[in-house]
Amino acid sequence: MDERRRKILYRASHRGMKEADLMIGGFVAARISELDVPQLDRLESLLDELDMDIMDWVIGRKPVPEQHDHDVFHMLATFKPYDGFV
């Protein structure tokens, strides 16, 4: 994994709120290798937001701001960490 992806993974996994660490960090750990450079840019921008805001957007409590209503956010919002488990 290149340095940029390692930094993004660390940042996504050490949010400060355990639920966000699990949700966002779990998504990034599972999908970071699949993201292209523009998607990494969008992910980094999303990581600049507060944990509670991201979680509110994911669960639909608040509308997703236009600048974050993109493919990476939708991948996060629909990510199911236990897909494939019985």
TrEMBL record:
Keyword Manganese: no
Coiled-coil positions: none
Keyword Chaperone: yes
Keywords: Chaperone
GO annotation, biological process: tricarboxylic acid cycle
InterPro entries listed in its UniProt record: SDH (IPR005631), SDH_sf (IPR036714)
Protein family membership: Belongs to the SdhE FAD assembly factor family.
Entry protein name: FAD assembly factor SdhE
